[in-house]
Amino acid sequence: MKITLSIIITLFYFFFAGPVKHPWNDILSHSTNSVSELNQTEQPGGNQLYIKHCLQCHQNDGKGVRGMFPPLAGNDKIKGPATDIIRIVLFGLDGPLTVNERDYNQPMPPQAYLTDKQIADILSYIRSSWGNQASKVTAADVGNVRKLGKPKN
Amino acid sequence: MKIIKSFSVLLILITVVISGFCMRSQSGSLNIPEDNAGLTLPTGFSALVVADKLGSGRHIVVNSNGDIYLALRSLKNGKGIVALRDSDGNGRADVIRYFGNTLTTGIDISDGFLYYSNFEEVFRVPLTPDELVPTGQPVVIATGFEKQNQHQDKTFALDGAGNIYVNVGAPSNACQQVDRTPGSTGFDPCPQLERHAGIWKFKDDVPGQDQVKNGHHYASGIRNSIAIAWNASNNKLYVVQHGRDQLFQFYPDMYSEQQGAELPAEEFFMVEDGDFFGWPYCYYDQFKKQKVLAPEYGGDSKAIGRCDKAKGPIMAFPGHLAPNDLLFYTGKMFPERYKNGAFIAFHGSWNRSPLDQKGYFVAFVPFENGLPSGEMEIFADGFAGVKVIKSPNDAVYRPMGLAQGPDGSIYVSDSEEGRIWRIIYNAKK
């Protein structure tokens, strides 16, 4: 009798309240996010390349992570001369920096393994996203900076 | 008439006496908001905000008189520590003073001294009874650490027996020849293990101790353990490690995006003299329940190789949740099951994308005889203020540091807005 009753109660919960879940299960269980929607990589454009190579640190909203990775959205450096940010992508960046009165301190590894075209597409995407409005960057721009090599200082 | 008058006097007297008693019972006079300041807590617990907008809060400590000291990882008006006092006992700090000339990350109190650290040194300064802000000269206790540009927090634990254990994080993700670069293999052996990625032990009262000359290399192979605490119930050191990043980004042939988001585990270690925990050669796979060889060292997501020799965790948490503080509860306020158990502040992930970010809560792990005696449970949640976190920027607050007050309350600091919560048991009748 008791068992029957508990089965009925359990079934009731499953139907009306959903399975009783430990909050920890949510963390271990698969997220509702679709991974596949980010996997359409035929002819990846700036957006796709950003997702693959930049998003982890600088985030989907381009706002970075406080204390670690500076924002690309609303950052004057991003909207400034293309040469400066091409250098950062090609040769990396190290040491503390301040953007919009907030401090950041995590190294940016060089991304020189990306092609000139890929870097140009990524930077053009960044310069025209999240409210940024700056000119496109071309593969030739990137090629020129690459040829000059890493600045001494 | 006379009778009525003396009756009123008596009534007033009784009221004064009763309210006097109420004032004295500390939690009776605490001003606790109905919504527990936005936090979700187990039944019987409640929370209030001690202070707000203090700066970029890091670790936190509460003195035996109830004074609070919060480390600030970025200077605020040139100061790196904020001291707070609740002089009227309503729970809200009403005296707030900034001091200290260096940005601060680790902070603790032992034997009348305030210990604090920045990225390169550990200091201590005597606390004067009844003085909120220390007036003495700070003395460097541990120094000589190499400058590093990631995992630089020199957090520490004091054992109360004259020793201090300092976390020196790895200056890289996985000791690659070129850090965080696809295809770059790991240095083998990893030279970073000589001065980093481990715990160094020093005397807690000897000035100017150098890492190499005076420090004892207590444990190794720990990538970064911002969360570090001494467990007084069994006199052992415990840390929670920040596991490595970017398995999928750099090795998409071996790991799916899902696996990259969930692996490796954040590992909870019991640390003893001479232990080696495996970084950078190994990481812990919480699904396989074993240490596996890192891809930078020939691993293929399955091979174990040399990792059978690395000491394992006492508990494994999902990847990238960023355990930033650890506290063993010794107070008398909380129910018995919390005694000697571990509270862990998970600052929350930034690199689980494209999946949602996770963490952003304070967890509890019950302990018996120095080991977890049950599953971990979420103790305090709701810091982020939103249900779904796509990017850390979505979180309004992020739990960072933990401290226990003299009455057994738990204090939680926030890194984003500089808020401090106080969590109390059985305050609402």
Total E-strand runs of chain A: 2
Share of residues in strands of chain B: 25-35%
* Largest Cβ-defined interface: A-B, 38 and 42 residues
CATH topology (fold) name of the domain at 44-148 in chain A: Cytochrome Bc1 Complex, Chain D, domain 2
- What is the number of beta strands of chain B? 30
In whole angstroms, the N-to-C terminal distance of chain B is 39 Å
Strand order of the largest sheet of chain B: 6-7-8-9-13
Rg of chain B, alpha carbons: 23 Å
CATH topology tier name of the largest domain in chain B: Neuraminidase
What is the CATH superfamily classification of the domain at 44-148 in chain A? Answer: Cytochrome c-like domain
- Give the helix tally of chain B: 3
Low-pLDDT stretches of chain A are: 9-42
What's the total helix number of chain A? Answer: 8
Reported CATH architecture of the largest domain in chain B: 6 Propeller
**What is the first-to-last residue Cα distance of chain A?**
82 Å
Ranges of chain B where pLDDT stays below 50 over 5 or more residues in a row are: 11-27
The overall pLDDT average of chain B reads: 93
Overall shape of chain B:
globular
Helix content estimate of chain A: 40-55%
Identify the CATH architecture of the domain at 44-148 in chain A. Answer: Orthogonal Bundle
